[in-house]
Amino acid sequence: MDKRYYKVLELDKIIELLKEKASSKLGIEKIENLVPLSNYEEVRNALQETTEAQSILIKRGHVPLQGIYDIVDKVKRAEIGATLDTKSLIEIADTMRATRVLFNILSGDIKVETFGNSANSVEEERVEKYPIVNSLAGSLYIHRSIEEEIHNSIVSEIEISDNASSELRNIRRRITQKNQSIRSRLNTIISSTTYQKYLQDAIISMRGDRFVVPVKAEYRSMVSGIIHDQSSSGATLFIEPMSIVEMNNDLRQLKLAEVEEIERILSELSSMVGEVSRELINNQEILSKLDFIFAKGKLSISMRGIEPDLNKDKKFKIVRGRHPLLDKKTVVPNTVELGYDFSTLLITGPNTGGKTVTIKMVGIFALMNQCGLHIPADFGSSMCIFDNIFADIGDDQSIEQNLSTFSSHMTRIVDIVENVTEDSLVIFDELGAGTDPEEGASLAIAILEDIRLAGASCIATTHYSELKKYALARNDVENAAVEFDMDSLSPTYRLLIGVPGKSNAFEISKKLGLREDIIERAREYLTTEDIELEEVLQGVEKNRLKIEEELKKAEELRKEAENIKSYYSKKMEKFEKSREKAMENARSEAFSIIRQAKESTDKLIKELKEIENQRASREKDKRIDEIRKEITKSMGNLQPSVESMVVPKFSDSEIKNLKAGEDVNIITLRQEGTVVSCDDKKKEAVVQVGVMKMTLPYKSLKRIEKKEKNTVTKTTRKIFKAKSGNIKREVDLRGMTLEEAIMEVEKYLDDACMAGHDEVTIIHGIGTGVLKKGITDWLKKNPHVKSMRQGQYGEGGAGVTVVQIK
C-alpha cells in the first residue's frame, strides 16, 4: 500500500493517539511500525486482538502494564558474562514482576465445557475466553525466584541490602563497630583538657574516608599525626591522630572488602539473569505485543469504537460513523456505503457542508480497519479489505516545482489511474477543479468512468452539474448530498444518499443581501438544461423535506400511542391487583362476621341442651345438628383458603435449597421460626414458631440469617475508642535495659491490639545488638505477634523491627 496517502488521510494523527495509550517504550516502538495489512486473515486476527483487549479492559477496568522496560541489551550482556549494575538489575526484576502479574491475570480467563456422545461418555474441553491474549500471556516465562533474589538484594540504584549475603551483613556490622571505636577514641581526644587548646573546634570530621580532627596551625607540632587537609585560610589543619591511623586502615580494609562482596553479589545475580536470557528475550517480545494490543483496546474505548464485520467482497457500510479526530460530543454521525447497489458515490453540496470530512472519514476508516483498529461507528457496520487506498485531497501546489493547483491535482490523479486495481479504493476531493469548468467537468467524468471500468470503489466530491447528470445516467453510480439549512444559512453536516445536492449560490447570495437584479441576470446566463436540473433538484429537495417532516410527525404519533398503551396497561394491571385484594378483604371480613355468629349460635345451642338436659328429644337434637351444618356450610363459601392467607399476594419468588434447622420468616404472619423438616416435592416445610408447628408452602417463607448477640458492653466500647485514638503505631525502646524494654513492649502490644492496629514498629536501635536480640526472642513467644520482620530501607533498617499483630 502506498504510504504517500497515509498523511493525506491523517493516519499519522491516529498513530499519535494510539501511542498515547501505550504504557511502555516497547509498545510505542510497536505502534510506530504499524502499517495497514492487506491479508484477510491477518486483518481479522488484528481486529480480534483489539476486541479481546477492549472486553478485558471493560471487565477489569485496568490491566497493569507499568514496570516494563527494554532489557534486551542488558540481558545479552549478562548472557556473555558481564556484571550488570544495580539499575539494570532492578529494571530486569521489575520487568519480571510485571510479567508474572500479567501471566496471573491474563492466562486465567479459561472456562471448561463438558460434553459427551452418550450418558456414560463425558468429556471436558478447555476453552479460552480470550484466545489471542490468553495464548500470549500463557507463553510468558515466570522467574519468581530470580525476581525476589534481586529485590531482596538491591534496595535502590545506589544501595545493596544487608540481606544480600551473610558475609556482607558481617562486614557492615564490623564497619559499624569500627566506626564506633574510632569515634570513641576521637571523642576522648577532643574532650581531653590537654588537647582542647590545640583544637580549632571540638568536633570530628572526615577527609576522604579517614577520620580527622581540626587543629590550629600554630599547634601542628603538638598533635602527632598525618595532615590530610587544611582550611582555605590556612589557620586550620585536619590531622589524623597517630593513635587512630591503624584503626582507620582497618576501616579502609573493611570498606574494600564490602565493595568486593558487592561486586561478587552483582556478578552472581547477573549470572542468574544470563542463564535465562533466551526466555527473558522471548518475554520481551510478548510484552511489547500485549502493550500494543491493550493500547488498541484503550483507543477503542476512548472513541467508542466497534469491531466491524469483515467481508471478502468489495463493499463496505459505515453505520453512523464519526470521524475519529473530531469531538465525539458534537460530530454529526453519517451512514455511508459502497459496493452494494453502486460502486461510485458522488457527493455534491455547498462549501463547508461536510463533504471533505465525509470522504476523509471513509478513507481513515478503511486504513484503521486494515491496521486492526476499531472504528467509531455503530454496530452493523461492515468493512472490506483494499489492496490500495488512493486519495486526492487538498491543494499541493508548489512554487519550487512550478505546479499550479490543477497541476498538483493532476499529478496525483495520473499516479492513481496508472496503479488502480479492482480491489482499490479511490477518493477524490473536488475532482476536475482548478481549470475551465466545462473542460474540468468533462475530464472528471472521463476519470470517473476509467476508475469505474477498472472495477475499483470510488467516492468523490464535486460542484459540477454535469457530474450529477452522469450519476443519474449510470446504474453503478449514485448521487449524494450534504444537507444545508436555508433558514439559518448553515450546514447540518448530514449526508443524504440518492439525492443530488445544490450549491445554493443564488439563495445564499440573496440572503446575504445581493441585489435581486444581479441574481436574475446570473440566472439568465444559465443554460436551459442547467435551469431545468436546478428546478428538478429544488423540487426533489422540497419533497424530501416534506416527507421527512411527515415521517417525523408519524414517529412522534407512534411513540405517543405506545406510551398511552403502556400507561393504560399498567393502570389495568394495577386495577386487577386492587380488585383481587378487595375481594379477598371482603371474604375475610364476611368470614369473621359469620364466625362470630356461629360462636353465638353454638353458645345458645349449648345453653338449650343444658336446659333440656335429659328431656331433649332426639328430633330436637337432630334439628340442632342440621342448623349447625347449614351455618358451617355458609361459612365455608366465604372462608379464605389457607394458601391465600399465608402466601404473599403477587409474589413469584420461592425459597430454594431449604434445610432443617434454618431460621425463616413467615412473610404474611410476620413471625420468625425454625425449619423442622422439608418436603421438596410438595414444596412445603414444617416450621416451629414458639411451641406451635405449622406446615407452610415455600412461597410463604423467607430465609433469615441467625443473629449473634453483641457481647461488647458500653464500657468496653469506650475503652476501645480511647485506645484507638491514643496508641501510636511505634514504640521507642532506645536507652532502656532489656527488662524495661520487655515490660514496655508487652504493655504496648496489649494496647495496640485493643486499638485495632494491624502493624506496628518497635525501635530498638543497633548498638551492641543485645537489646535487639532480646526483644526479637521475646516477640517470638508473644501471643499477639502474627509475624515480624526487620525494617527495610526507609523504615529504619536494622534499627527497627516491624510486627504484624494478630
From TrEMBL:
Coiled coil: 537-621
Assembly notes: Homodimer. Binds to stalled ribosomes, contacting rRNA.
Pfam families: MSSS, MutS_V, Smr
Family: Belongs to the DNA mismatch repair MutS family. MutS2 subfamily.
Domain of life: Bacteria
Residues that, per the record, bind ATP: G349, P350, N351, T352, G353, G354, K355, T356
Domain Smr: 731-806
Enzyme class per UniProt: hydrolase
A molecular function GO annotation: endonuclease activity
Enzyme Commission number, as recorded: 3.1.-.-, 3.6.4.-
Name of the featured protein: Endonuclease MutS2
PANTHER family referenced in this protein's UniProt entry, alphabetically: OS10G0509000 PROTEIN, OS10G0509000 PROTEIN-RELATED
InterPro entries for the chain: DNA_mismatch_repair_MutS_C, DNA_mismatch_repair_MutS_core, DNA_mismatch_repair_MutS_sf, MSSS, MutS, MutS2, P-loop_NTPase, Smr_dom
UniProt key word ATP-binding: yes
Name of the gene this protein is made from: mutS2
Role this protein plays: Endonuclease that is involved in the suppression of homologous recombination and thus may have a key role in the control of bacterial genetic diversity. Acts as a ribosome collision sensor, splitting the ribosome into its 2 subunits. Detects stalled/collided 70S ribosomes which it binds and splits by an ATP-hydrolysis driven conformational change. Acts upstream of the ribosome quality control system (RQC), a ribosome-associated complex that mediates the extraction of incompletely synthesized nascent chains from stalled ribosomes and their subsequent degradation. Probably generates substrates for RQC.
